[in-house]
Amino acid sequence: MTLTQQRKLKTILVGIASWTIALLLFFPIFWMFITSFKTELQAISVPPQLFFEPTLENFTIVQERSDYLKHAWNSVVTSFGATILALIIAIPSAYAMAFFPGKRTKDILLWMLSTKMLPAVGVLVPIYILSRDYGLLDTQLGLVIIFTLMNLPIIVWMLFSYFKDLPKEILEAARMDGASPWGEMTKVVLPLSVGGIASTGLLSIVLCWNEAFWSLNLTASEAAPLTAMIASYSSPEGLFWAKLSAASTLACAPIVVFGWFCQKQLVQGLTFGAVK
Amino acid sequence: MKRSITRLLMAPSVILLLVWMVVPLSMTIYFSSINYNLLYPGRNNFVGWMNFEFFVTDPGFWIAISNTLTLLLSVLIITVVLGVALSALIDKPFAGRNVVRVLLISPFFIMPTVNALIWKNMMMNPVYGIFAWISNSLGLEPIDWLSNYPLVSVIIMVSWQWLPFAILVFVTALQSQDTEQKEAAQMDGATGWHIFRYLTIPHLARPIAVVVMIETIFLLAVFAEIYVSTGGGPGYDSTNLAYLIYNQALLQYDVGVASAGGLFAVLLANIVAFFLIRAVGKNLTV
Amino acid sequence: MAYLNITELQKHYDNYHALRGINLKIQEGEFIVFVGPSGCGKSTLLRTIAGLESSTGGSIDLDGRDITELASSKRDLAMVFQSYALYPHMTVADNLSFALRLAKEDDAVIKEKVSSVSASLQLDKLLERKPKELSGGQRQRVAIGRAIVRQPKVFLFDEPLSNLDAALRVQMRLELARLHKKLGTTMIYVTHDQVEAMTLADRVVILNAGQIEQVGTPLELYRSPNSRFVAEFIGTPKMNLIKLDGLTREGDMLQLKLMDTLIDFPVARVHGPLPSNATIGIRPEHLTIVSDSGDLTGRVELIEHLGSEAYTHIRLANDQTIIVKAPARTEIKDGEMIQIRVDRDELILFNESDRVFSVVPEEANHE
């Protein structure tokens, strides 16, 4: 075999291997999607059916039975609300730490991250009691507050890494051009870090959307986001797989599609600024 | 800019996080020292270390600790090892690489509750599940995953969720690897394995540190997967610390004991964090 | 009273003394180049003048005003950065007008200024482009334009040409020289490239380890360096340095002993006490390869042909290598023994602490 042929063969083998692994990892999602268009009987048929006549009735039933739209709206409000709030709080501090670092900046950042290490269960009881006493149990506002605080350390950290990577000379140029600290932030830093802020925000939305611990423990029916709604499908053993799949598809589709579209930014965000 | 303005800008997040940390934690400490059951209000007398004793002597306590650590370490090893291998694989060009990337990232977007439901029902169900069908087709006895290997099942679910994260971080990192360096090594007679071992792995030190750090934060707190799939069982076989405390607090309404357990979780997290920051901290420049 | 007056300027970092008492007077309209090896403090000095670094001692006066503690933007200075530091999210026009807009100048005035600057730098067709759609040379011109538009009292350049390829660098160097002629504004320019320093500067400031080593016109520095550091730093190839085997005084003459050769050197060209140990410096172009009665003998090791001329590397009897720069000749071969004559008028003498104690004769300065 010539060298060229060897290389071609290698490329083909790499392609086959990658595709196989990707399809295997994606299979559960694909199966969930397929199952949501089956009848209950088809859903549990052995051997599993790949070809069948699709039906949409599961989706109608899910909406009727558990009011999908209400929970979806809860998810949207809490994810976006908490993300926007957290960004508003985090941007000024990340900015200050990145551009005017003091001797203790590093310690503060590590401390912030360490609050994220604090396990939620450790404070579950007090948070539950506080939410109950302040009437925040099973409300959107309660979840927004919790989500904001929960993601704040990661958001500050990510923004900090983005800001820190901005070329210093551009900021110095702005300073020489007569920009005030405020002007520097609004006219140069923010426009330059739109990408970074976007990917931070996207990641925060994904984390909020998929958050399950607080959603399960602090909401019941009114403010329950999709994660909590889905959990209510877990009880009937082995029954209603098609409806379960329909509900799951509905719960995940928005964020998965969102994730596909924002893949590039998200990947950037996921590396937490540690990887160029 | 003046220090005072810098402080002012940082104040909101620092104060909020301080409150978020200090208030509930001190409440937890307080609750852990009193008799506090939601079913019997009003009898909140000081009981000293009794709640801790109660929690530690709970038959599930040591199992939960060991399950928590097993889960953490297994998923870290699986995702890092497979992540590095797979990212090295898809780093090379082939047809449809972008689609493969999209497929690979997808499980990361699936919410933990759905993740658990898909695996529990459609994959691992001993009668109707895909795994059972595969076993049957091969003429083997189907395995009842959730009953016989509950912790392994949870590890599979959680790894499936976090593997994409690891892959994506590593793929991004690999793109920044110096190709000239690799070419130089090739000219020096290095094989693909040599390049992987002596150039790629060291290059990935920092990304691996990031992955380990982030995953640890989330893995110590795995909850929904267990809640939805095994319910901690059978027995305590798949109960981790988070689930044990949840069980005490919201199922048995014993706030005192749950708070004592919460403090154990905090302690455990601190121990892990201590070792973690020592091990990977030097690779993270803040 | 100088236009820009730097007095006893100090810069301490935590554990590093970057500027150790800089004194420098710059006249209005001068083109000053700071040059030196990396880490010598040239960029720190420029950035301290710009106000991007704060000084830890001393003062800077500009046009009769103490600017030491003033914010960068209030100093009436404009800077061109090494990386150009263009605002990537703004068009060329917006980049050029950013400072004017911040200063809330009149729209019509801004437009007028931007269009005249862009015309003079041939940027008028690129005004709507973003920096990433420009070539390296165009970006460089935008960076310069951004500085010009503000009509500052002093232009600061921080290694502005180091990111350009060789051909473009030569072209931009010419454009900068032309620009200085046209505007007549004071310019301070940092570079590590001595060719840029020599070709652009009215006066060159050579820095070494946080101190000024010597200030002078390019020719002064070239002809009469006052230390071994300056002598070696300026000139390509480097000045040849040969340790003397002896130094004795015979009436009006010094006798320099170089291996077996004695070279006469007028005492009148020496100042200060005679050192016991000395080194001579002689530039490669002041050595000539001769067929007989040369001052030195050596073996040809290597010849570098540059076209019109050639650098001949020669190993002397004491194992030291020297370089002769001469018009290209093909008859000399590697390994051949040859003789070299030293141009006595161009000899420079260094004492044991590497300071120069000889003077270049007047007539030699005007040859």
TrEMBL record, chain A:
Coiled coil: none annotated. Keywords: Cell membrane, Membrane, Transmembrane, Transmembrane helix, Transport. It comes from the Bacteria. Gene3D superfamilies: MetI-like (1.10.3720.10). The keyword Glycosyltransferase does not apply. The keyword Signal does not apply. Residues 72-262 form the ABC transmembrane type-1 domain. This is Carbohydrate ABC transporter permease. It comes from Marinomonas piezotolerans. The lineage of its organism: Bacteria, Pseudomonadati, Pseudomonadota, Gammaproteobacteria, Oceanospirillales.
UniProtKB/TrEMBL annotation, chain B:
PROSITE patterns: ABC_TM1 (PS50928). It is found in: Cell membrane. The keyword Kinase does not apply. Its main location: membrane. Coiled coil: none annotated. It comes from the Bacteria. This is Sugar ABC transporter permease. The lineage of its organism: Bacteria, Pseudomonadati, Pseudomonadota, Gammaproteobacteria, Oceanospirillales.
TrEMBL record, chain C:
Gene3D superfamilies: Nucleic acid-binding proteins (2.40.50.140), P-loop containing nucleotide triphosphate hydrolases (3.40.50.300). Signal peptide: none annotated. Keywords: ATP-binding, Nucleotide-binding, Sugar transport, Transport. SMART domains: AAA (SM00382). One of its GO terms (cellular component) is maltose transport complex. InterPro entries: AAA+_ATPase, ABC_transporter-like_ATP-bd, ABC_transporter-like_CS, ABC_transpr_MalK-like, ABC_transpr_MalK/UgpC-like, Mo/tungstate-bd_C_term_dom, NA-bd_OB-fold, P-loop_NTPase. GO terms for molecular function: ABC-type maltose transporter activity; ATP binding; ATP hydrolysis activity. This is ABC transporter ATP-binding protein. It comes from the Bacteria. Residues 4-234 form the ABC transporter domain.
